[in-house]
Specification:
The chain is an alpha/beta fold. It is built from 8 helices and 15 strands. Helix 2 crosses helix 3. Bound molecules: NADP nicotinamide-adenine-dinucleotide phosphate (NAP).
């Protein structure tokens, strides 16, 4: 199969495009002929060596959408020819390829009305946004939430979900992305380049931070007493608040099929529409990583594999 892979850690230039052996479906697994996969920030962190992988060649990538081309022993609920989508299990990479083997239990059927490209764009972003907004922050109708980094993939899903719940949504974005985040439903937009968000925003019930670093730490300032904040760009632990009257949370992002099915439901109900997408070929993986690593673009970068 063709794949984009690395044989050592480093910058985007270490990404190669070439032939690797086809994966086999082990017990409980299916092989998926990948039609589309998307770039997540984790992919370039993997490429840089931040995730302690030790085996090369290493194929990055976590989201997949495609067609089942082999079924391992014991798999009963997924069949040859099913169109499916999903996210590799935590710790597994490998979707920047024409084929990937994954546990059958973590794939969901993809309806025909959802394209492979959109499914690959919505998978990990959707799992992450739902985990943060619904399961972790438990956002309620009438609450106010600040979503940091509104033009990104996860935040774009989160804005739409928070509006669906009935919350008031404030988000941060650079001026070029204001029309985009308004279109997703944001009620108020802070141009973080022109204004300090801690001066512009106050009294929030919740914060969802997708930016990390200093932005994450400073986000506690906008919470009302008793407020809660969820962080996905600060590593495995939420940053520690410097005030005692708020809660810092780190969403666990599971891969269960029922969560993928909920993405489909939200999409089919018109609650969530796919993000803006920039398409690449797998042979252009280095270019896609350069843009993702710049952290200034809209929506998702997706590889159309076949
Ligand atoms: N399982 C997990 O825990 C999990 C899953 C998915 C993602 N993540 C993490 O979540 C983070 C977000 O990922 P993502 O793919 O949604 O987006 P991303 O690629 O990290 O972010 C892109 C967006 O961030 C915005 N941005 C950059 N700096 C900003 C700032 N200072 N203030 C406000 N917005 C800013 C950019 O918009 P502008 O051009 O307008 O600045 C751009 O649209 C990443 O760190 C990723 O690793 C974690």
């Amino acid at each position: 199969m063709k794949a984009a892979f690395i044989e050592r850690f480093g910058g985007p230039e270490v990404l190669q495009y070439g032939d690797l052996p086809d994966p086999l479906a082990g017990p409980g697994e299916v092989v998926i002929d990948v039609a589309a996969t998307s770039v997540n920030a984790a992919d370039w962190k993997v490429r840089l060596g931040e995730y302690k992988h030790t085996k090369f060649p290493l194929v990055p990538g976590r989201d997949f959408s495609g067609t089942v081309s082999a079924v391992g022993e014991g798999v009963k609920d997924i069949a040859l020819g099913d169109t499916v989508f999903g996210v590799c299990e935590a710790g597994q990479e490998g979707t920047y390829a024409e084929k990937v083997a994954v546990k059958a239990g973590i794939v969901a059927k993809k309806p025909s009305g959802l394209s492979h490209v959109n499914a690959a764009a919505l998978a990990l972003t959707g799992l992450t946004a739902m985990s943060a907004i619904e399961d972790t922050l438990k956002l309620q109708r009438g609450e106010t939430i600040l979503i940091q980094g509104g033009a990104g993939g996860v935040a774009g899903f989160a804005i739409q979900l928070a509006k669906h719940i009935g919350a008031r949504v404030i988000t941060t974005a650079s001026a070029a992305n204001h029309a985009y985040v308004k279109g997703l439903g944001a009620d108020e937009i802070v141009d973080y380049n022109a204004q300090d968000f801690t001066q512009a925003v106050a009294n929030c019930d919740a914060v969802f931070d997708t930016v990390g670093g200093d932005v994450a730490q400073r986000s506690f300032a906008v919470l009302k007493p008793g407020g809660r904040a969820a962080f996905i760009a600060s590593g495995a632990q939420a940053p520690k608040p410097q005030r005692a009257d708020v809660t810092a949370l780190r969403p666990p992002v599971g891969r269960a099929r029922r969560h993928l099915e909920r993405i489909v439901e939200l999409y089919q109900a018109g609650v969530v529409r796919p993000p803006e997408i920039k398409l690449y070929r797998l042979s252009e993986a280095a270019d896609a990583h350069r843009l993702s690593e710049s952290r200034h673009f809209r929506g998702k970068l997706v590889f159309q594999v076949r």
